[in-house]
Amino acid sequence: MLSFTIGRPTNHTKPAVWLDGGNHAREWPAFHVAVYFIEELIHKYGVDEKITSYINLLDIYVFPVLNPDGFIFSRTSKKSVVCALVGKLRDE
Q1: What sign does the dihedral 31-36-37-42 (CA atoms) show?
Q2: Would you say residue 9 lies in a domain?
Q3: What is the dihedral of CA 30, 35, 37, 39, to 10 degrees?
Q4: Spatial contact of 35 and 11, defined as CB atoms under 8 Å apart
Q5: Of the four listed, 37, 48, 53, 77, which is most buried by Cβ atoms within 10 Å?
Q6: Which pLDDT score is estimated for 61?
């Protein structure tokens, strides 16, 4: 699993926010929303006052896909399998 930590280093503990996407295999848009969120934070830091404030005051943890095996399986499998709503975590 890949995670992104966004925040400014400080000498004290800051509140944290956790955002995850792609919990379930067929939640494809959730992955894209999480990636878009990361891009917005990175590109608008120092430009957008609210985003800059959030990043300065918080540690933000983003996990775009919590179920990478299921995500890949649902995107690359035959349609009949996906349409049958096979959504279990893959451990086979």
Answers
A1: positive
A2: yes
A3: -160
A4: no
A5: 37
A6: 92
